[in-house]
UniProtKB/TrEMBL annotation:
GO biological process terms held by the UniProt record: phosphoenolpyruvate-dependent sugar phosphotransferase system
Signal sequence bounds: none
Organism of origin: Streptococcus gallolyticus
Compartment(s) where it occurs, according to its Swiss-Prot or TrEMBL record: Cell membrane
Transmembrane segments: none
Keyword annotations from UniProtKB, A to Z: Cell membrane, Membrane, Phosphotransferase system, Sugar transport, Transmembrane, Transmembrane helix, Transport
Topological type in the membrane: Multi-pass membrane protein
Pfam families: EII-Sor
Highest taxon of source: Bacteria
One cellular-component annotation, GO: plasma membrane
Regions annotated as coiled coil: none
UniProt xrefs under PROSITE patterns: PTS_EIIC_TYPE_4
Protein name: PTS system, mannose-specific IIC component
Length: 282
């Protein structure tokens, strides 16, 4: 598999749309197009191998499943993970002759995604820093009463930032990086220690993503029970992800109804106590 300049340019465009702060917006851009799960589909369509793209996207999504961007703190920017890591992982899988649905292919994809995650952080802060220049221009326009110039500050100038820190890096790394990844086939044979190490590390990376997710949602020991139910359903009944999601939706509705019932009861109790206090005052 090779990546042409046109394909690399398309990947660069989607990197611009999904970057944070992104031209595609927060909801559609960063939290939709930027997710590896969606980026895998986009990369698969662009490179002509949807199956491998989706598999790589799913593998990388496990690693970054708990990725959040509180304020200006970004541990890894998904623009690089989705639109640099996934294409290069697809090239690596094809060059190594791996089956797309094999465990080795998934582990290789996870490792590639993690390698470029730090690159995305650099691109994020570069974009944010250049945007400060446009912000300064906007403040000067406000001071001079040139309010129509704010449209340029909001809609035109940020394209320059994303072109410099999203489009160009993605274009160059996808096009030239594909050649380097293909050359890795000869330099790093499949049965060598470096590749085995890469596969081993890749197999462990999803544990990091799941652990971070658990740290965010688990407040007490019993919160682990719903988490383990999903694994039990998959292991015992052989259910896929969609089936487990439907069953979890049922539990979510039940938990919601129970919490609402508790809230209504607490409100009613508080109202009764208030009435009793009024009667005592009388």
């Amino acid at each position: 598999m090779t990546i042409s300049w046109f394909q690399a340019a398309l990947l660069g465009l989607f990197a611009c749309l999904s970057s944070m702060p992104g031209l595609g917006g927060t909801t559609i851009g960063n939290y939709t197009l930027g997710r590896p799960l969606v980026g895998g589909l986009v990369c698969g369509l662009i490179l002509g191998d949807v199956k491998t793209g989706i598999i790589c996207g799913v593998a990388m999504q496990l690693v970054y499943i708990a990725l959040v961007t509180p304020g200006g703190t970004v541990s890894a920017d998904v623009r690089a993970v989705s639109y640099i890591g996934i294409p290069l992982a697809m090239v690596a899988i094809h060059s190594q002759g791996l089956s797309a649905d094999s465990a080795d292919a998934a582990n290789l994809a996870k490792s590639m995604g993690t390698l470029v995650g730090t690159v995305g952080t650099v691109l994020f802060y570069g974009t944010a820093t250049m945007n400060l220049v446009w912000q300064h221009i906007g403040w000067r326009a406000v001071e001079k009463g040139q309010f129509r110039k704010l449209y340029q500050v909001d809609w035109l100038y940020p394209w320059v930032s994303h072109f410099v820190f999203s489009f160009i890096p993605t274009l160059v790394m996808c096009k030239l990086g594909a050649t380097a990844v293909t050359a890795m086939k000869d330099a790093l044979p499949m049965d060598g220690i470096p590749m085995k190490t890469l596969f081993t590390v890749g197999a462990l990376l999803p544990c990091v993503g799941i652990a971070i997710l658990l740290k965010q949602i688990v407040e007490k020991a019993v919160d682990f029970i719903p988490f383990f139910v999903g694994f039990t359903l998959a292991a015992s009944l052989g259910l896929n992800l969609v089936s487990c999601a439907v069953i979890s939706l049922i539990f979510a509705v039940l938990f919601y109804e129970l919490e609402m019932a508790k809230t209504v009861r607490a409100t009613a109790t508080a109202a009764d106590d208030f009435d009793d206090d009024d009667e005592e005052d009388i």
